[in-house]
Amino acid sequence: MHEEPIDPFAGDPADPSAELDDSGSEDPLTAAERQDVLEDLADLEIYQALLTAIGVRGLVIECEDCHEPHYFDWDLLRGNLKHLLTSGRPRVHEPAFDPDPDHYVTWEYARGYADGVHDALASATDDNDG
Fold first, then answer.
1. What residues pair up with 59 in beta bridges, in sequence order?
2. In what order do the strands lie in the sheet with 69-73?
3. Among 47, 32, 14, which Cα is nearest to 61's?
4. At what angle do helices 31-51 and 107-129 cross, to 10 degrees?
5. What are phi and psi of 129, to 5 degrees?
6. How would you class 105 by CB atoms within 10 Å of its CB: exposed for 0-12, middle for 13-18, buried for 19 or more?
7. What is the 3-state secondary structure (H, E, C) of the chain?
8. pLDDT in tens, 15-58
9. Are 60 and 52 a contacting pair, CB within 8 Å?
């Protein structure tokens, strides 16, 4: 099973996106940027584990380029982050087709939810110890 979508033009000499491939022109990720992406991947695992149970399908991110919300399911976002790690640049993207915004939350919401669960568990543990 592939972790990311298969390129339908892989190996095709007439690939319409071939001239867009400027992989040599981008700087690789710095050590700090790489660490940030690795932390995002770790956080994503936690968010998915906690939020899938309440019906959340992924995260919504405000695109800096087009200023539109982009909806990413868990696997697509994970694939995009892994691609960023290996290539040093983000994938070209388009907004999802007709997503249901009720099934997506922001990174900030996911982080706050995870922090709340952590605090509740820590408080319950403290109550049981004392």
1. 72, 105
2. 69-73, 58-62, 104-105
3. 47
4. 70
5. -80, -25
6. buried
7. CCCCCCCCCCCCCCCCCHHHCCCCCCCCCCHHHHHHHHHHHHHHHHHHHHHHHHCCCEEEEECCCCCCEEEEEHHHHHHHHHHHHHHCCCCCCCCCCCCCHHHEECHHHHHHHHHHHHHHHHHHHHHHHC
8. 666 655 544 445 689 999 999 999 999 999 999 999 999 999 99
9. no
Output the pTM of the full model.
0.72
- Cα–Cα distance list, 30 to 21, 38, 78, 91 (Å): 21, 12, 20, 18
Token readout for 70 is 């982009």
Give per-residue pLDDT as tens, 72-106: 999 989 999 999 999 988 887 766 677 899 999 99
Cα separation of 89 and 80, whole Å?
10
Question: What's residue 45's pLDDT?
Answer: 98
Q: Tell me the sheet residues that pair with 104.
A: 58
